[in-house]
Amino acid sequence: MKILVVGDGARENALAKSLSSHKVFALSSYINPGIKEVVDSTQGEYFLGEITPEEVRKIISRINPDMGVIGPEDPLFRGVSDEFRKEGIPVFGASKKNARIEESKVWARWLMWKYEIPGRLRYKAFSTMEEAAKFISEYGGSLAVKPAGQAGGKGVKVIADIQAYLSRDKRQAMAKSVNEIGSYYNKEGEPKIIVEEKVDGPEYTLHALSDGSTILPLPLAQDYKNAYQDGIGPETGGMGSISGPGFLLPFINQEEYDGTFDIVRKTVSAVEKETGESYTGAIAGQMMLTGLWGPTVIEYYSRFGDPEASAIIPRIQDFGDLIERTATGHLSNAKLRVDERPSLVWAVSPLGYPLDRKLASGHKVSIDVPKIREIGCDVFFGSIALEENSLVTKGSRALELVCLGDFEESRRKLMKSLSFIESDVKLIYRNDIGSTILEQEEKAEIVRYTYTSRKKRGTLGVSADWSPNGGLW
């Protein structure tokens, strides 16, 4: 079988590796060393170019693939997966219409309220910066202010009124940052900013596969978004992740997992009703366990998260078979075999990321992959290109190191793995990932007590200062 993998990051490296029993072709904007390893070993072909529907159409015409696999969100928003469907080729990837569940945060919130999906937050959307700034400066409660659409995790600001005497100053500062937040999403005819009620609790993600009739939930994962140790610094695409043991995380129980899957399942059904198209591919709820609802939706993915994919995919046997079954509509007969051991992922980035991509670009890196694999870990290549037999950073997360097993033992192996990586620039990583389990278990117990009490009283999701139709007064 000939499979065309679209995308150039660590997530696509993980997807390509899971498909290595087939002939793998690839399209990306630069040569990813990990993807190239798979392409070469399966005697496929690597195509360089901008990932657009037009470019994909040309490659489809040239190689006539049996299946397509789309990794990143932007090609889904552009309708790349639809090009395969036009040619009658099975594809793992949401259609352009269905990918709106991720592309538009406002549409996702509206959908949850229309179909009364649990875990929904109250919100208000703004088309002008002036309206948003005025609302933020006048409203009295705690808020999360975000770009109204997908912006790669950028631009999110939170204001919490714990200290009332600081309220006015904090609001004025937040109102001034509205222009920056709104600049991250500027799609014509769409709102620019969304304001949501602020919630607190441990975060986690549930991914599921959907073939249009069957929905298969996968093991939970959690990513660590802040750039520096102890969860401080600017938000990134994710500096690492954990998954397991089993299907859960140490701080999420089975009832919460089931409730989360119910949310994702109802969301898929609602999306299909609105768009009139079957949902085929991956969907994920990025969740927070809160005292307001229990499992609560922060946002949706219309694809696999990154670095969550690097934590989940290596734990699932024959994952490539699941991708094929999803794309071809045969997921109902799938057998999901999960390694019970947890996984730990550390992202390695050049100095400068995420605030100065120019500073983080153009640096040479050398890595002894066989040595890393010898000690029981693996490497997925991200924002790093193979150029004239050298590995050169592209400005974002360059590598994702992955290890399965006890978290503490995996942390020791990952530290050893770092000794096999050299660069002409300082490399940054977070070695606290996988070490904050106890803290998160304690946090989960607090919010669990609150939401279970609310459930008994029949007040899940009720906030006194928010109107019942999803708007904020």
TrEMBL record:
It is an enzyme of class 6 (ligase). Pfam families: GARS_A (PF01071), GARS_C (PF02843), GARS_N (PF02844). One of its GO terms (molecular function) is ATP binding. Residues 109-328 form the ATP-grasp domain. SMART domains: GARS_A, GARS_C. One of its GO terms (biological process) is purine nucleobase biosynthetic process. PROSITE patterns: ATP_GRASP. Belongs to the GARS family. This is phosphoribosylamine--glycine ligase.
